[in-house]
Amino acid sequence: MNARDYRPPWSLRSPHLQSVLGSSALRHRRGREALAAAGAVTTPHIIDAGEGVRLQGLHSVLPGAQPRALALLLHGWEGSAESSYMQLTAARLLVRGFEVFRLNFRDHGDTHHLNEGLFHSNRIDEVVHAAKEVARRHATRPMVIAGYSLGGNFALRVALRASATSLPLAHVAAVCPVLDPARTMDAMEAGPQLYMWYFERKWRESLARKRKLFPTSHDFDDRVLGLRMRPLTQWMVERHTEFGTLDRYFEGYSIAGDRLASLRVPASILMAEDDPVIPLADFHALRLPANADLEIAKHGGHCGFLENWHGDGFAERWVAERLDAAVHATMAPLSVTA
After folding, report:
1. 226 Cβ partners below 8 Å, 6+ apart?
2. What is d(CA 41, CA 133) in angstroms, rounded to the nearest whole number?
3. How does pLDDT run across 136-149, given as a tens digit for each residue?
4. CB neighbours of 246 closer than 8 A, spacing ≥ 6?
5. Which residue intervals of 138-256 are DSSP H helices?
6. Contact of 279 with 187, CB cutoff 8 Å
7. DSSP strand pairing (69-74 vs 98-103)
8. I need a surface site. Which of 44, 138, 319, 324 has the fewest CB within 10 A?
């Protein structure tokens, strides 16, 4: 299967409908049902992410089955390990013989209490450290990683650091990853305001929760929470990061242009032509290595890719197939040798 195979019915070809339904209650229910139908047993784990940082994640297996590989899944900004696409991807991977670890970023899901400092998108070191810890616990199996939106950006950055940090990744898959944060901010400000309103509401709720848990460290008032996305991000950058300016902060986690050219881990990237959040032009400008494939579907919105009104998603199938094929290719030489 590839991006050309994705042909949603006419009633689901609106990019905005795709993007909104992708995180709807329908899809959340579909995700829970898929995991239950697979027979998944899921347990929460606290992961040492280095320098006193703790991250939480969900580990899922099928009872009685011997996993053939481990998949680490990363959610988008203000999503969580319980997001619909995370559950649906996990369910598809489980039935293909994987065990799955869905990692929550700092301050996502029910984890605000674990760390005093705020989440921001340049906290890559703790995610790499957490990935290594997950790999250590499951060292006898091939490991793959996948992410959606900002999680796709993180997944690709983890893969960029895999060789230097001895992280044994066999493949990375990313769906609608953020490439150039500055251009993504511009696109959100110029586009339909429902996306900006959605992320602003979610982020304000997260910051308010953090303030309640750590009132001494986070004593900002409600005027800060009333700021729009750009000035609120600038406030966060100036007070809670070492970057100083918004431009340097955005540059810190950009993977646009030739920044993925040195990627050694084989990669698969899925994007939609009609994504209303991530600029398509950034993908055409990517300089990718020979071991990376970029597929662009005509439809799909932002991380939607719904195939029908039941909530089934092409992206989750695509991720599972790409990771499954990568693990098969990795293990095939061992089978021949045996």
Report:
1. none
2. 21
3. 988 767 999 999 99
4. 182, 230, 233, 234, 237
5. 150-160, 181-190, 193-213, 222-225, 229-240, 246-252
6. yes
7. parallel
8. 44
Residue 49's identity, in one-letter code, is A
The residue whose two tokens read 């006193």 is: 52
Q: What is the pLDDT of residues 260-279, one digit of tens each?
A: 999 999 999 999 999 999 99
Q: DSSP for 39-52?
A: T-EEEEEEEE-STT
Encoded tokens for 70 = 């481990």
**What would the pLDDT profile of 212-254 be if each residue is shown by its tens digit?**
999 999 999 999 999 999 999 999 999 999 999 999 999 999 9
Residue found by looking up tokens 């950006």 in the block: 153
Token readout for 111 is: 């984890």
Query: How far apart, in whole angstroms, are the C-alpha atoms of residue 296 and residue 233?
Result: 30
Q: Which amino acid is at 321?
A: E
Report the C-alpha gap between 262 and 253 in whole angstroms.
15
The residue behind tokens 């406030």 is 235
Q: Give the span between the Cα atoms of 323 and 306, in whole angstroms.
A: 20
